[in-house]
Amino acid sequence: MVDALNQRNRYNLFMLKKFKILFVCMGNICRSPTAHGVLRKKIQEAQLHHYIEVDSAGTHNYHPNDPPDERSQAHAQMRNIDISDLRARQITDRDFEVHDLILVMDWENLSLTEHRSPPEYRYKIKRLTEYCQTMESPVVPDPYYGGKEGFEEVLDLIEDACNGLLQNIQQKINRSDLSDKNLRNS
Q1: Which residues of 106-137 are buried (b: 16+ CB within 10 A; e: fewer)?
Q2: Which of 25, 45, 47, 74 could form a disulfide with 32 if both were Cys (CB 3.0 to 4.6 A apart)?
């Protein structure tokens, strides 16, 4: 019983402030809103929505305030993931300060995001696929110019990576590794 209480106290201490995750792709209409929606649903199902906040942005401002690509919405909806409420935006300087973890979709997103980031916040930036558990891909490929298979592959990769990400966060909570840097660097 004492162990359970200590674990609960560590959990409460860890979650004094929401852990903020930002997903980044190029235009914020396909991959990053898909990741946003997938993780949002998984957080809700795990009842962690009071403790983890999710957002998404693009490296470019191609589609300001547009909803996600209709194909992204349709494929997400087939998995009971609703992303229709999300709107495209470009990453801002403030995002680097307020988000605890910034997850990019590919090498170009990584390069552009690191270049834009102030040096003191670059440690927060990682590729989403670093959290994949069963699938192997260094990046989440851009499905924009491809067919429906591309959108399904994106969802498969994102769901796998989001499972790994949530597992990583829950392990950190259980170990009471409360350091923000330690949470991001694993």
Answers
A1: beebbebbeebbeeebeebbbbbbebbeeeeb
A2: 25
Digit-coded pLDDT (tens) for 52-89: 999 999 999 999 999 999 999 999 999 999 999 999 99
Q: Is 94 a catalytic residue?
A: no
Q: What is the pLDDT of residues 152-176, one digit of tens each?
A: 999 999 999 999 999 998 887 777 5
Q: What is the CATH number of domain 16-184?
A: 3.40.50.2300
Contact 170, 91 (CB under 8 A): no
Question: Alpha-carbon distance 159 to 34, whole Å?
Answer: 9
Of 69, 106, 142, 160, the active-site residue reads 142
Per annotation, catalytic residue among 30, 31, 116, 184: 31
> Is 25 part of the annotated catalytic residue set?
yes
Catalytic residue selected from 25, 30, 132, 162: 25
